[in-house]
Design a protein that fits this description.
Radius of gyration of chain A: 18 Å
Helix content of chain A: 55-70%
CATH architecture of the largest domain in chain A: Orthogonal Bundle
Number of strands of chain B: 2
Strand content of chain B: under 5%
Structural class of chain A: mainly alpha
Radius of gyration of chain B: 57 Å
Number of domains of chain A: 2
Number of strands of chain A: 0
Strand order of the largest sheet of chain B: 1-2
CATH topology of the largest domain in chain A: Rna Polymerase Sigma Factor, Chain: A
CATH class of the largest domain in chain A: Mainly Alpha
Order of helices and strands of chain B: HHHHHEEHHH
Order of helices and strands of chain A: HHHHHHHH
Mean pLDDT of chain B: 78
Largest sheet of chain B: 2 strands, antiparallel
Helix content of chain B: 55-70%
Low-confidence stretches of chain B: none
Oligomer: heterodimer
Number of domains of chain B: 3
Distance between the termini of chain B: 128 Å
Structural class of chain B: mainly alpha
């Protein structure tokens, strides 16, 4: 149903109704932003890359062959953006910043256990390699299928599974152990 | 199903991506294998903790400044075609000028335009009137006659000697021959002038004095 709606909106945009793309942005901005936030650990970077991703998607929309696969195509653009930015800013140590990003307490102060869990999860995600972090976020948080993840990260399904398995082994160790030492996370 | 096969499908089992046959095979294996069952439960627990440990946030609305629509309106299209037509017209005009090579001469009689001849060449052609040609021909004829009329250097003869009839007759014959030679010369001049007239192509009338 979601894919069918995406396909209709994509066709409307290609027919010249640019306002239909705003609906696509509205539908996917929350998912894309949270994916990028978990990938980069930085709200500002996530927001900037989200905007760039939507803009690139709009300008290249005519290249989208399978119009019902808009979501995986959009996330692939986002992954490529993150990889490109990561490569260009690697020397400036601009990798994962999740441990330093303040927790979201807009709904009220967090209790001790929740706070500990959130800090732990951020720390563990930050310890994964970028490749492992991509597949974990895509599978655990965004719920993509393996064939879709393979398209997004541009590798075979077997590689996706092996990366996920290795990441889960690492997460298992971290989540079962006592709270890991965290850096000065607020 | 073996443990390796189960572990290969464990994530699909967690996310419900298996076919009904694979799902029932995995369920059967879980009943018989405590290790795989525990691993599945562990992975499920990790997934739940990970989701709880980093809940989704509501982002600030993302505003994307979309570029102008790719479809052009009629004004843009017409402007494009007008510019192309203008460029084509200019190119055709240049090609016409190169091929036809018109030359424009301005004089007292107005503006005169000729096609097909280089302007510089047309300006260099001398303009000769019919009267001038007649005068030139007449001068040439007179000069030839004067040259022929000059006495031939002959040996000194006694003055008192009476002219011989035979010699007079020979002189008359010589004069007739000279007349024929003179006429050939005049004809050659006429042919030259005729060619000159054709080149000027302004007044291709052959002078009447050259017709015999």
């Amino acid at each position: 149903m979601k894919e069918q709606l995406d396909k209709e909106l994509v066709e409307q945009v290609l027919d010249g109704h640019a306002e239909a793309f705003n609906l696509l942005v509205w539908r996917w901005q929350r998912s894309l932003y949270n994916f990028l936030f978990r990938l980069t650990g930085d709200r500002e970077r996530a927001r900037d890359i989200s905007q760039d991703t939507f803009l690139r998607a709009y300008t290249r929309l005519k290249d989208l062959r399978e119009r019902d696969k808009f979501a995986s195509w959009l996330f692939r653009i986002a992954v490529n953006q993150v990889r490109s930015e990561y490569r260009s800013r690697q020397a400036a140590d601009a990798g994962f910043g999740g441990e330093l990003a303040p927790l979201d307490e807009s709904q009220g102060p967090l209790d001790f256990e929740t706070r500990e869990l959130q800090l732990t999860v951020r720390a563990l995600l930050g310890q994964l390699t970028p490749d492992q972090r991509e597949v974990v976020v895509l599978k655990v948080y965004e719920g993509f299928r393996f064939d879709e993840i393979a398209v997004i990260v541009d590798c075979p399904v077997s590689t996706v599974k092996s990366r996920l398995y290795a990441a889960f082994d690492q997460l298992k160790t971290g989540l079962e152990a006592p709270a890991p030492r965290l850096r000065s996370a607020k | 199903m073996l443990c390796n096969e189960f572990r290969d499908l464990i994530f699909e089992r967690l996310s419900g991506e298996l076919t009904p046959q694979q799902d029932s095979a995995c369920a059967d294996h879980e009943k018989s294998c405590a290790i795989c069952r525990a691993e599945l439960a562990q992975f499920r627990s990790i997934t739940i903790k990970m989701r709880a440990g980093w809940p989704s946030e509501e982002p600030m609305p993302i505003s994307v400044a979309l570029p102008q629509a790719t479809s052009r309106n009629w004004f843009d299209v017409s402007a494009l075609w007008f510019s192309r037509a203008s460029a084509g017209l200019v190119a055709a005009s240049l090609l016409f000028l190169v091929l036809v090579r018109p030359s424009v001469q301005m004089g007292l009689g107005g503006v005169q335009m000729t096609f097909g001849a280089p302007a510089a060449q047309a300006q260099n052609v001398p303009t000769v009137t019919e009267s001038q040609v007649k005068a030139m021909v007449q001068a040439a004829v007179e000069a030839q006659v004067a040259q022929q009329a000059q006495p031939q250097p002959v040996a000194a003869k006694p003055v008192a000697q009476a002219p011989d009839v035979t010699q007079v007759a020979m002189q008359v014959r010589q004069m007739q021959r000279n007349e024929a030679t003179l006429w050939q010369t005049v004809q050659q001049h006429g042919m030259y002038l005729d060619t000159l007239w054709k080149q000027t192509s302004e007044n291709p009338v052959r002078p009447a004095s050259l017709t015999r």
